[in-house]
Write a structure and sequence with these properties.
3-stranded antiparallel sheet; 1 helix; globular; alpha+beta; two-stranded antiparallel ribbon; 20% helix
Length: 87
Amino acid sequence: MYVIELALKLNPVPLSVQRKNLRDAESLYQKVRQCLEKAHPRLIELTCEKIEGKKVSVLVDEILGVEIYEKTSASGGVKRPGFVFEE
């Protein structure tokens, strides 16, 4: 399972969606990046793979960053935000 996480302005909790395979996760990640680079379209719609019809729309101007990572059962699904350098 792969997680695409959006950091939003003035929101301490990130918005995240999951994709079952890497190809779909990378595709969504690139879509969000392109929206940020062009500041167009004004809204981006994210959908849920598990529950058909479940959607959320986000103003592109409110997105600060996007992150993609693999959700692993070894970590219990919990991760530290951002990037971690192992020592």
